[in-house]
Amino acid sequence: MKRCFAPWLGLFVLLFSTTARAQDFFELSPGPLTHAHAALDNADNCTKCHELGKGVTDLLCLNCHQHEPLKKAIAEKRGLHATFKQPCRVCHTEHKGREAFVIDWGPLGGRNAFKHEQTGFKLTGKHESAACSRCHKRTLRSGRTSYVDVPPDCNQCHQNNHNFTNKALTRQCTDCHQDPGIAKNLRPEELPFDHGERTKTALEGKHATQTCVTCHKAAKMSMPEGNERTCINCHKNPHGKTFKKWACTECHSVTTKWEESRFDHDKTEFPLHGEHKKAVCSACHKSKEAKPKTSCNGCHGDPHKKRFEKVGCERCHDKGGSTQSRFDHAKNTQFALTGAHQELGCRKCHRGAGPTKFEKFVNADCMGCHAHEKAHNGQFKDKNCLECHSEGGNKTLVFDHNQDSRFALTGFHAELGQKKQCEKCHEGGTYRNNKLACIDCHKDSHDGQVGKDCQRCHKTDVHFKGAPFDHNLSDFKLEGEHQKAECKKCHPERRYQLGDKTKCIDCHKEDDPHQEKLGAACEKCHTPTKGAPKFDHEVMTKFARTGSHLEAKCFTCHRPKMEKAPEVGWSKALAADEKLDRHFPVMGSECADCHRDHHDGRYGLKCESCHDTTSFKDARRAVHDTGSFRLMGAHDRVGCQRCHEQNRILTGLGELCQGCHREDDVHVNALGPYCGECHGQLEWRPPRFNHARVGFILRGAHRTAACKDCHGQTGWFAGTPNACEFCHGTEAAAVPDPIHNGSLMDCQRCHNEVAFAPARRYHPTYPLAGAHATVRCGSCHVGGRYEGTPRDCVGCHQDRYLDPTTRPNHSLAGFATTCENCHVPASFNVARYQHQSFLLRGTHRTLECGRCHTGDQFLSAFGGQVGAFECALCHGAGSPVERWPADHATRGYPPTCELCHNELGWKPARAPR
User: Fold this and answer.
1) 92 DSSP β-pair partners
2) What is the rounded (10 degree) CA torsion for 152, 157, 160, 162?
3) Given 44, 104, 550, 601, which residue has the most CB atoms within 10 angstroms?
4) Could you tell me which residues are beta bridge partners of residue 397?
């Protein structure tokens, strides 16, 4: 029996030793990768995602060519991944199977509860209710949706819904859609969109108050190319065919009411005049389809009953429909109508009974119509009428007083002539009286003090009291309040000759509040307008005001010098209505003259080196910036007295921290006096010490640990050991499984600083797979013994091999101790023994070994006949598994069952041919 077993057993071992090596990777892998990474699912590609000693790192994820868009988005600081600072593996887990999804929404609160504003694009309006797939349309190779690198551009989803022809407008959606969603009932004034600038069509009048969709139907914002924007596109023509050649804008404007037409009728063949301008359009335009007649008779009847048919209406009447004649009397009758004649109606002279009867006159002189009375006391004859009076039957003079006399009429004199009040000057009708000077008619109220040339001050067109004398032509020009003063204020009793009294002090000496202590040149500070607007403290004095000095009242500084300079803030205690000493005494020009020196002269008299006039308490510390110690951070916020106690000067001590913080040094000078190498003035903590300088780079938990955790409370840092066991030896010794003895003290073989637990199993001599990868170390390494642990299966599992209750009984059956021939660590109970002489098919593949191999008979077939495997041995009459129907024997069926039955499906049986 051993001779028969040996050949196929050797082949069995050879096949399975090769298979075991090929499957080592899959037995170590936590599970298959998803479809997206299926191409990497083999042992050679582990390092493409797993960095040795660091696990899955973000750098390897982003270096993959599939994630270049994501890498670019992170670099540009946009999208979710630029703000979510967790490692990639927190949300993207693998080894969950081919059909698993590589994205885990859990760390973000779940997909349904995801806050979209984390991506930099907050969902508002219609976006809040839109499905994710409406915007995220790109799919991955796995068929799932990609949510990476979707630009926040409206046109990615909305493809020019408004039919814009200007491409620039397609990028400016937020001008109208300020809140995402449908922009309803929007008006131009509500939007930043400039209709005039963008479309070259400015909205005016009622157009500016309409909603956008009033003109842009179905939200189509751009007019088709070639279409002219005209009124008729939106408004129905109410004029019919009458104005079909005229543009609407010739008469109407969007800024005025429609009824208020601005049509210029003069551009037509019938300009409007007179009464025609007042008439409404419908008075002449009776029909919308035809133009009215332009002749007078077309609208008006003939009141003269064809009396002037040959002359024509236009000879007497204008085109404005006025009843007043425009008959040219001078041209057609040789008698020009002037003066009062022009105002008379035709019937005043032509006294015929009807409109067709007009008298003709032979004599056209004045006496023909007028009975002339004697005038001017008989000084003139009747034939002299026209020498003074114009034609027209009135008293209008043709005498020109300005040219025909030696006295030109101006001002009030001319008014007398216009009012025909010649007797005001020519009493008794006497016109040649030789009165040419003012004093010939008017009394001199100045008693000859200013001479007889009255025109110097008085004019005939201004009343006497409002004499237009130009004082600026004198030695004293009038300005400000002097212009408002009455003449008698300066010239009492009409005394106008004042000599050389032109200075302020000549008149206002008694009014001088300074009592001449500021000199007599009042105009240096004051103007005639009141006050002292010309005074400039910064230019006219030696003390230029700045800061709070500009707001100070004059009496605050201009007071007698005090024996001792007052305290800071003393001016606030002064009364707001304190009277100013107009003598303007001065306390001094230096700071110490008015302000007490709280430093008692220790910093000199140059107060401005630290203080300014804006706020004394906010002393600027620019002096520190010029020395060896520049104030920054916390130092720049503390008061001076914190360092300069009792106002003392710390010369030469500020550049070293120990000068002030010796008692605060927690390192007890163990790290030297140069605190700035680790700490900064802006932020004392955390320190910026580069630990790599001492040969021990901090990683993982070491980066977040406090310094005292390793260096203790003493502050002593030098000589601290860097081996793991010096700090963690006690913790390692307390671990019960595995027992950490001398063999396991090389901590970094299993642990790392990034994630101390769970520990990676360091098993270089015997790769752990299947159940071996999950058992505790103490199960194999009993008592902490690591060296000399058996590596073959029987070394640890011999008790199970010898156990007689094991089915099958391996020892009794004579199985070899090379367990790996049938078993694998992944699933020990499911043996993978390959039947050689009798191939298992159909139901035979699912049966337990003991169903056929009863009594631990494995190395031989039933009856001891190796290779003679017939169905009847198990299923025939009297066999262990009797399935032979009774009628088979009576019917004479042979025991060769395979003629009708097969192992895949015993029923139904196929009939032999």
Assistant:
1) 103
2) -100
3) 104
4) 389
Closest CA to 391 of 315, 329, 324, 326: 329
Q: Which residue has the tokens 């109970």?
A: 829
End-to-end CA, the chain: 39
DSSP string computed for 649-666:
--TTTTTSTHHHHGGG-T
Number of CB atoms found within 10 A of residue 448's CB: 8
Query: Given the DSSP bridges, would you call strands 55-56 and 50-51 parallel, antiparallel or unpaired?
Result: antiparallel
Cβ-proximal residues to 357 (8 Å cutoff; 6+ apart), any chain: 350
Q: What is the pLDDT of residues 654-701, one digit of tens each?
A: 667 877 888 888 777 777 777 888 888 877 777 778 888 888 888 888
Closest CA to 485 of 473, 498, 497, 471: 471
d(CA 497, CA 484): 20
Sequence-separated (6 or more) residues with CB below 8 Å from residue 699: 752, 753, 754
672: Cα separation from own chain's centroid:
51
Task: Tell whether omega for the bond before 738 is within 30 degrees of 0, i.e. cis.
Answer: yes
Alpha-carbon dihedral 88, 89, 92, 96, rounded to 10 degrees? 160
H-assigned helices in 208-312: 212-215, 275-278, 281-284
Structure tokens at 246: 């005229």
CA neighbours closer than 13 Å in the CB half-sphere of residue 312: 5
- What is the C-alpha to C-alpha distance for residues 122 and 297, in angstroms, rounded to an integer? 78
Show the tokens assigned to 83. 């703000």
Preceding omega of 912 cis (within 30 degrees of 0): no
The answer to whether 349 and 359 have CB atoms below 8 angstroms apart is yes
Collapsed DSSP state (helix, strand, coil) of residue 175:
helix
Q: What token pair was written down for 705?
A: 């640990």
- Token digits of residue 346: 């035709």
For the chain, what is the radius of gyration of the CA atoms?
Answer: 61
Residue partners of 207: CB distance under 8 A and separation at least 6: 215, 254
Dump pLDDT digits (tens) for 280-327.
Answer: 887 788 777 777 877 777 777 777 777 667 777 777 777 665 656 667
State how far the Cα of 647 lies from the Cα of 602, in Å rounded to an integer: 8
Three-state secondary structure call for residue 50:
strand
Dist. CA 198–CA 168, nearest whole Å: 10
For residues 23 and 624, what is the distance between their CA atoms, to the nearest angstrom? 73
